[in-house]
Design goal:
The protein is of the alpha/beta class. It has helices spanning 2-22, 27-34, 63-78, 132-140, 184-196, 252-261, 272-277, 281-284, 305-308, 354-387; strands spanning 48-55, 86-90, 125-126, 159-166, 169-170, 173-176, 180-183, 202-208, 224-228, 238-242, 247-251, 289-291, 314-316, 350-352. Residues 324-348 are annotated as: Disordered.
Amino acid sequence: MLLLSFFHLFLYLSSWTWRTSATSPDQEQIVRDFFGKDGSTSTSGHTNNWAVLVCASRYWFNYRHMANALGMYRTVKRLGIPDSNIILMLADDASCNLRNKFPGSVYANPGRDLDLYGDNIEVDYRGYEVTVENFIRVLTGRMEPSVPRSKRLLTDERSNVFVYMTGHGGNEFLKFQDNEEISAHDIADAFEQMYQKKRYNEIFFMIDTCQANSMYSKFYSPNILATGSSLVGENSYSHKNDNDIGVAVIDAFTHYVLEFMEGINKTSTKTMQDLFDSYDVSKIGSHPGVRSDLFNRPLDRARITDFFGNVAHVEVTPSIEAETPAFVPPTTPGQKSERAIPSQSALPSLTTSQPLMDMRWLNNWRVARAWTSVALLGALIGWVGLQK
């Protein structure tokens, strides 16, 4: 009877080890499919995201431009980009203006459901610091040594950068503080310097102003996607007025972009094409434009979170030395140390070595362990038989 039980156990272990080794799915393919390596999705290849948000106007009657920038600020933070990876340039003269019926607050809708200012906000360049020179220096990294890290754009060649600008403009220019102007050539040359200095992987440029589409007409550097609120010769319009505040509280183009973004979360698969398809001229009042000839990915495969969200980057590689640690310290700076919230994008890449600890080796170990158990059990049964 004992011998019969032994053979039953032997057959069970044999069938189990055969199933484990012969019918286990290809673990490497599963991992690659999950992370989009099967060709179904075109990946960006970036490891960190940054945002540069600029309100180029000041004075109370330009309240809506401040609300535009703060609305974008709230959105990128909600989707995971920390303050350490956001450069916010803001006149910051509306929240505490004597004409503001709601001191310390900025609202983007007449119902005042959401305070865009509040306590959880970090303005990097405030008031008269919002200049063309400072904007160009931020993009190109040409900063004085005395400038703190919190006011620097510490990007590298694996960084995706979202640049948003709002204010009063015209054909190929945008006014800064009603005092100076930045031209389309200036921005194009700044982006080229970024490219030459390997300061970005991809750039998404968005601008809300009159004749906005002229501002990206001079771009010539690779991997740049751009959109604007209005055609050359066309105005960009405000959305709604608040009778209590007394001025328009947001522009139409930015309002509908933010409305679309409210349906996006950190794991969304919505693409840039979905965003551009949501543009409705009858609602916006002007004709938004898109320029994608410099962008090297199909718009329907470029996810919105590639620019608006944070990154926890994972790479699947065929092999790696066993002694290499799972986490490799970054070789270039990825975040600004002076902020309270650490940047997830600054964390080093997680590399899967011999995918999932090499599942083939694990299966072989299971087979060897099972047969070792069978051998030990057989020896034990034989020893018991000899004792009799």
